[in-house]
Amino acid sequence: MNKADLIEKIAAAHGVSKTAAGGAIDTIIDSVTSTLKKGGRVTLVGFGTFSVYQRKARNGRNPQTGGVIKIPARRAAKFTPGVELRKAVAKK
Known about the structure:
Layout: H1 3-14, H2 18-37, E1 42-44, E2 48-55, E3 58-61, E4 68-71, E5 74-81, H3 83-90
Antiparallel strand pairs: 1-2, 2-5, 3-4
């Protein structure tokens, strides 16, 4: 499923236009992104939690030359699924 499929599903399920459904999806994405940029976390009970974590600096390998390169530390986004989502995915 991609964003367009999700917009169609929301529009059909709630009887709203695709434009309104698309606007709602964009607002959700923008809100989650801005919260993570500030270092916060977004918890959707039953679905999961979006958070930010710090990756340590490490050494890597250049696949072309085999030489060692330094990969700097950085912040990265992380999603942890909630209990209900884990249970729903585990069921057949």
